[in-house]
Amino acid sequence: MHEYSIAYDLYATARKAAVEHHADRVKKVCVEVGKMAMVNPEQVIFLFDTIKEDDPLFTKAVLECNEILPHTKCTCGYDGEEIFVCPRCGALPELVKGREIVVTHIEIEVDGA
Ligand SMILES: [Zn+2]
Question: How many angstroms is it from 69 CA to the middle of ligand 1?
Answer without folding.
Answer: 19
